[in-house]
Amino acid sequence: MSASTDRSAPGYVPRLLSAAAFLTNRATEESLAELRLTHERTLILRLLAESPATEDQLSASSGLPAACVRDCLVALQPCGYITSGSGGQWTITASGESISAQATHTETQLMLLADTDVEGLRAELHALIRALTPPR
């Protein structure tokens, strides 16, 4: 049994967890892309759902660089998810609230799927690790 298949081998669990995180992140990114969203855009929508904010406030609250926040706002506005108001305040629209809720639901479903199908996930990750492990 090689180190990539032996569950007691050093590094097996960290590699398994790393692969699980990668696959979950990838699935989330693909699901968000179908909604014309990214992790950053979803974060901006969630912050605006709490209260209207300026670009600077969104940058401070999100921890995202100002340029990234600006790119998100520029992408979200033509979709009808946000509107700009007086004083540079951005506000989420009803469509934005709906799509944000849909994104949250999708992410939750992906996490539940990963939690409920542990053996299937373990088998898939095991195969992935085996395929990525160079032969000795």
TrEMBL record:
Pfam families: WHD_DprA. Transmembrane segments: none annotated. InterPro entries: DprA_WH, WH-like_DNA-bd_sf, WH_DNA-bd_sf. Residues 35-88 form the DprA winged helix domain. This is DprA winged helix domain-containing protein. The lineage of its organism: Bacteria, Bacillati, Actinomycetota, Actinomycetes, Micrococcales.
